[in-house]
Amino acid sequence: MSGLRVAFPDTRKTYCFDAFPSIDKVSKVASPVLVIHGTEDEVIDFSHGLAMYERCPRAVEPLWVEGAGHNDIELYAQYLERLKQFISFELSTS
Description:
Blueprint: H1 3-7, H2 22-25, E1 36-38, H3 46-55, E2 63-65, H4 77-90
Parallel strand pairs: 1-2
Organism: Haplochromis burtoni (Burton's mouthbrooder)
Subcellular location: Cell projection, Dendritic spine; Postsynaptic density membrane; Recycling endosome membrane
Enzyme class: hydrolase
């Protein structure tokens, strides 16, 4: 959702010094968006992925990778398969 929200999970608003205010910008994205997040991400809590998906008007079916962490998600077969599907079909039909 944002850099500050990662460091301070109880943060509820965006401050001007937040380097990554993605949660405030995602509603303006006009192209299809694929949200991918590991359920066991130890760096960015899974709730951030859910919030981004819920706020994104052009979100396609997300990929929640059961058991994946922050730095190993690409090791799961469904990651590459879902990415291929997104690029080949969902992006090309937008």
